[in-house]
């Protein structure tokens, strides 16, 4: 880790782009260190490198393989002790604003504008003596089953995250994706009972993805839903796989899936319009997607959840909740607070 940490620190000092990442359950940390500060974009997804795309589709940053030094190091699992950064004062204004937003979303559902919408909020935390590389390593230790990354580009900014959600894995015409929804705080038991609201939310996500994929795939296989633990949070997960039609491009299927109902809503276009009109902040790369593009013969993309943006001496955290007709605004606020713990654990 020392080699890759030193190289990342050097890139930061020279204001050169880089990304460090560890895939779920992997024993390898990979670093791509771009040799110039140019801003590259993935245009047709035939490029090779690391892609970092925004929620609204306006930016698709690429750190290209052929412009970068690539370093792989072994990931050494070790025990770490972190002190959660707790809020000493409940932010009543933020709570009221978010609950008002959720209530507005529920009303839109009752008015038949859409069946589900994912509404989010941004929370800013002051930082003192923050170490990006150390925070990345702590995330990798704390959340080994997630996709953990830190990315820096002088023309984009600095991002850090540990996401449990895969957008797309593709090798040749074979693909894998998941439907992920429902949230429940870990209570110390492996037996998780899911209320009707969360089960329905998960089914919305699964049905939408399967229906979309039927248009571009000759075969779609769907697992039974099961519980997945990501840090201190449980979700409901369904595995989806199959074979793409020979005429389907990688870019086409990625943009077909993104943004999924798990981060946007259903139907997608109406839910997205509501989000852009009512959230009152720009998600930028939160709920976008990121990952390996054509590494060898495989692409491995993830949804940018459980993440934060580092701006000067502040960390901007992002938390979203799936809203259905059965949602309760106060409970959605509590869920968003539970989700914030993932990133707060590495803020010192």
Q: What is the secondary structure topology, with strand pairs?
A:
Layout: H1 2-14, E1 18-22, E2 28-34, E3 40-41, E4 49-53, E5 60-64, E6 68-74, H2 92-110, E7 116-126, H3 132-142, E8 147-153, E9 157-163, E10 166-171, E11 174-185, H4 196-213, E12 217-222, E13 226-230, E14 233-244, H5 250-257, E15 265-266, H6 268-278, E16 289-295, E17 298-303, E18 307-311, E19 314-323, H7 329-344
Antiparallel strand pairs: 1-2, 1-8, 2-6, 3-5, 4-5, 4-16, 7-15, 7-19, 8-9, 9-18, 10-11, 10-17, 11-14, 12-14, 13-14, 16-17, 18-19
Helix pairs in contact: 2-7
Q: What would you note in describing this structure?
A:
With 348 residues, the protein is an alpha+beta fold. It has a single domain, classed as Anthranilate synthase (4-Layer Sandwich), CATH 3.60.120. 28% of the residues lie in helices and 36% in strands. The strands form two sheets. Strands 3, 4, 5, 10, 11, 12, 13, 14, 16 and 17 form a ten-stranded antiparallel sheet that branches. Strands 6-2-1-8-9-18-19-7-15 form a nine-stranded antiparallel sheet, sandwiched between helices. Helix 2 crosses helix 7. The radius of gyration is 19 Å and the shape is globular.
């Amino acid at each position: 880790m020392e080699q890759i940490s030193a190289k990342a620190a050097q890139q930061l000092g020279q204001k050169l782009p880089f990304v460090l990442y560890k895939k779920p359950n992997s024993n390898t940390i990979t670093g791509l260190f771009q040799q110039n500060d140019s801003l590259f974009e993935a245009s047709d997804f035939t490029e090779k490198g690391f892609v970092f795309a925004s929620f609204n589709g306006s930016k698709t940053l690429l750190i290209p393989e052929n412009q970068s030094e690539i370093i792989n190091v072994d990931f050494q699992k070790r025990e770490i002790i972190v002190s959660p950064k707790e809020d000493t004062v409940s932010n009543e204004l933020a709570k009221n604003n978010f609950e008002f937003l959720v209530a507005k979303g529920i009303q839109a559902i009752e008015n038949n504008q859409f069946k589900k919408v994912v509404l989010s909020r941004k929370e800013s935390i002051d930082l003192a003596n923050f170490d990006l590389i150390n925070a990345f390593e702590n995330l990798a230790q704390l959340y080994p089953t997630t996709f953990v990354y830190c990315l820096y580009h002088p023309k984009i900014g600095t991002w850090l995250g540990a996401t449990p959600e895969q957008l797309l894995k593709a090798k040749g015409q074979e693909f894998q994706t998941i439907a992920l929804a429902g949230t429940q705080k870990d209570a110390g038991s492996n037996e998780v009972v899911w209320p009707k609201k969360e089960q329905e939310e998960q089914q919305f996500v699964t049905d939408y993805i399967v229906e979309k994929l039927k248009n571009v795939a000759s075969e779609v296989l769907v697992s039974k839903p099961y519980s997945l633990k990501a840090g201190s949070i449980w979700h409901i997960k369904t595995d989806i796989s199959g074979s793409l039609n020979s005429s389907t491009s990688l870019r086409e299927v990625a943009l077909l899936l993104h943004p999924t109902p798990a981060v946007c809503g259903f139907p997608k276009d109406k839910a997205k319009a509501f989000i852009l009109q009512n959230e009152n902040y720009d998600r930028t790369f939160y709920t976008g997607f990121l990952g390996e593009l054509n590494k060898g013969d495989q692409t491995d993309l993830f949804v940018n959840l459980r993440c934060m943006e580092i701006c000067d001496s502040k960390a901007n955290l992002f938390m979203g909740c799936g809203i259905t007709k059965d949602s309760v605004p106060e409970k959605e606020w509590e869920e968003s607070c539970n989700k914030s713990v993932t990133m707060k654990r590495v803020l010192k």
